[in-house]
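Lecture notes, unit on protein representations.

Consider one protein chain, 64 amino acids long.
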Amino acid sequence: KWKLFLSSHQKAILFIDAWSVHQLDEFMGWMKQNYPYIKVTFVPAGCTGKLQPADVGLQCVIKH
């Protein structure tokens, strides 16, 4: 939590794409076990550019 500058009672939201690996029970279980204060929220297909602008703009260079 300290890396996210959260107090002990605060939670974070992680917006990630709906890639099939992200939706696996194994991944979601790992997130809940290791980062119980982070709520994973999936970006609907086709909305990445609107809801994850860094994914389209900044990470585009790395991905392509």
